[in-house]
Design a protein that fits this description.
The chain is an alpha+beta fold. Helix content is 29%, strand content 29%. It is globular, with a radius of gyration of 19 Å.
Length: 266
């Protein structure tokens, strides 16, 4: 049986091991990953969160987070990467959650690519976090194995630490009565469907990372369609209620956000 040990990291040797792990996960050359050992060293020394997950003594996941505004209430999780399929990412997030609670914090925020279905399922369904803001091309173009040169749209997501911890895997929320699609998956391509429904569905592609490698134009069409719908709805004050059937965002259009149809090509 595999033994998983999660602990805070403090030495340059540990941070350099994290850099190599991240380079493997993101498919980048050594030394060009998403964060440097020196930055991790500085963040750790200043009292922020840098932790690694060791499976039978081998590093298989790591997470980096720092204190954020509002001061004294929030931890921002900048990057978490782990081997997939063994629960390591979930274990890291739960460790991070307890670390934040021990310091009197009330929420953890992070960003993720809203097109990646497995990340949406993990964040919204398993953890119970909720998107708050759509951030267009947040990091600029990112030419790694995951982002494939696509624009780096992200959603800022918040995890309320006072809410029950939703760590058990579920299939997502039920479909609300009267829900209508603003973006529908039609044979692998996004089809906008203008709607003024109170509950709006936004489909996601099956595998955006594979699509970026095989059909960049289709991947970009998904980026624009979700940006137009989800981005507009969040900017207008709508709330993402969760994910339905691991495929569709369910968005509640509040009265303040209901002034125009969503999903048009205008």
């Amino acid at each position: 049986m595999n033994h998983l040990d999660i602990r805070e990291l403090h030495t340059m040797e540990e941070f350099e091991t994290v850099c190599r792990l991240y380079a493997d996960i993101w498919g980048t050359e050594p030394g060009t990953g998403p964060i440097s050992a020196e930055i991790m060293r500085a963040l750790s020394h200043a009292g922020n969160y840098v932790a690694g997950a060791y499976e039978n003594g081998r590093l298989t996941g790591a997470s980096v987070a720092f204190f954020a505004e509002p001061a004294g209430t929030t931890l921002h999780s900048h990057i978490t990467g782990a081997a997939m399929g063994r629960g390591i990412g979930l274990a890291l997030k739960l460790h991070q959650r307890q670390w934040a609670l021990d310091r009197g914090l009330k929420r953890i925020t992070w960003t993720y690519d809203p097109l990646i279905r497995r990340n949406a399922h993990f964040n919204l369904t398993k953890l119970g976090a909720r998107p708050e803001k759509y951030l267009e091309s947040f990091y600029g173009a990112m030419d790694d194995a995951i982002n494939g040169g696509d624009e780096s749209d992200r959603v800022l997501t918040a995890w309320d630490l006072s809410a029950p911890c939703l760590a058990a895997e579920r299939n997502g929320i039920p479909l609300p009565a009267g829900a209508a699609h603003a973006v529908r998956d039609r044979a692998g391509l996004p089809q906008p469907e203008p709607t003024d429904a109170e509950f709006v569905l936004i489909d996601l592609p099956d595998d955006i990372e594979a699509l970026r490698r095989t059909d960049a134009a289709a991947a970009h069409a998904w980026r624009l369609a979700v940006r137009e719908t989800l981005g507009t709805l969040l900017a207008d004050g709508a709330r993402v209620l969760g994910l339905h059937d691991r495929r569709s965002y369910v968005v509640h259009r509040t009265p303040a956000s209901a002034h125009q149809p969503t999903g048009s090509n205008q």
